[in-house]
Amino acid sequence: MGINSKGDKKIRPAIKGAYGECLVTADCLSKGIMVYTPYVHDCPHDLVIRINNNFYRVQVKYRKITNGTVEVAMRRKSAEGYKKYNDDFDILALITDIGIAYLSGDTLNTNHITLRTRPTKNGQTRKVKLFKNYTSIYKSINQIRDEEKTQPT
């Protein structure tokens, strides 16, 4: 699944982004989920998906696995410097060489996300987020729906 897995040449970030968007699109379409892309690429999300006439904004990030972890900062570059993602998207699709993790809801309410691709050496499980627990886009959608039900109207 990985891009540049043989280490041939350094791949530009724009190519990695396009590759990641294609992987998420293919994954969604294979599950019967409709995918839409914006014409203009200055919006804070990369794709929009539709499930049962509900629309969800998806931000795609391609990351390398380092020492058994995948990390992503919850901020983006802007003309004013770095800007924290606020309500810019509903789902973060995190692409790695081993697959796609879909994160949503409270999982995104942080400055930094770390997913482990293998268990910790000391066996710690508390507050450890394993990559394999986030590979279902449907689980991510259900988390959003559950959180919407608990919010006051």
Overall helicity? 10-25%
The largest sheet has its strands arranged as: 1-2-3-7-8
Structural class: alpha+beta
Uncertain segments: none
Alpha carbon gap, first and last residue = 42 Å
Count of β-strands: 9
Overall pLDDT score? 85
Q: What kind of sheet is the major sheet? A: 5 strands, mixed
Radius of gyration: 16 Å
What is the overall shape?
A: globular
Q: Count the DSSP helices.
A: 2
Helix and strand element order: HEEEEEEEEEH
Measured by DSSP, the beta-strand proportion falls in 25-35%
Structure description:
It is a single chain. The chain is 21% helix and 31% strand. It has helices spanning 13-30, 137-150; strands at residues 34-36, 47-51, 54-62, 69-73, 75-78, 81-84, 91-96, 99-104, 112-116. The strands form three sheets. Strands 1-2-3-7-8 form a five-stranded mixed sheet. The chain is globular and about 45 Å long. The longest helix has 18 residues, at 13-30. It contains two helices and nine strands; from the N terminus they run αβββββββββα. It has 153 residues and is of the alpha+beta class. Strand 5 and strand 6 form a beta hairpin. The chain starts with 12 loop residues before the first helix and ends with a helix.
